[in-house]
Amino acid sequence: MESLQLATSIAKVLDTKKAANVKVLKVRDLTVLTDYFVIANGTSTTHVKSLAEEVEFQLEQQGVKALRTEGYDAKNWILLDYGTVIVHVFYPQAREFYDLEHLWADAEECDIQFDTPAEGGANE
């Protein structure tokens, strides 16, 4: 699966599960670590965990497995590393504290078209 397609698919899974403020950042030209970041937040630590688990589940159904995961114990910031795409699922206060969008301000934000606006989801 091509990296933008993978990032878009992940963003849509997160949006469907009512993640807030879903963003896809193209960081390919800024780092050798990955091509895209997908950043989102849940409304509680339980929601953060369920969002990350749903991304893993949906991608495993397509034969795509995370190379590495971190943060499931604390549930404030769960990272899923898919090689060309790194997913960051935050608890709101952790997202504000780490402020990846500011840290990667030179990254291009991709315009992802979600199928239906989710209440409390990415389109707010």
Layout of secondary structure:
Layout: H1 3-16, E1 20-26, E2 36-41, H2 45-61, E3 68-70, E4 77-81, E5 85-90, H3 92-98, H4 100-103, E6 108-110
Parallel strand pairs: 2-5
Antiparallel strand pairs: 1-2, 1-6, 3-4, 4-5
Description:
- By secondary structure, the protein is an alpha+beta fold.
- The chain has a single domain (3-110), classed as Beta Polymerase, domain 2.
- Helices cover 34% and strands 24% of the residues.
- The chain contains four helices and six strands, in the order H-E-E-H-E-E-E-H-H-E.
- It has helices at 3-16, 45-61, 92-98, 100-103; strands at 20-26, 36-41, 68-70, 77-81, 85-90, 108-110.
- Strands 3-4-5-2-1-6 form a six-stranded mixed β-sheet.
- The mean pLDDT is 92.
Key features of this structure:
six-stranded mixed sheet; Beta Polymerase, domain 2; 6 strands; Iojap/RsfS/C7orf30; 124 residues; alpha+beta
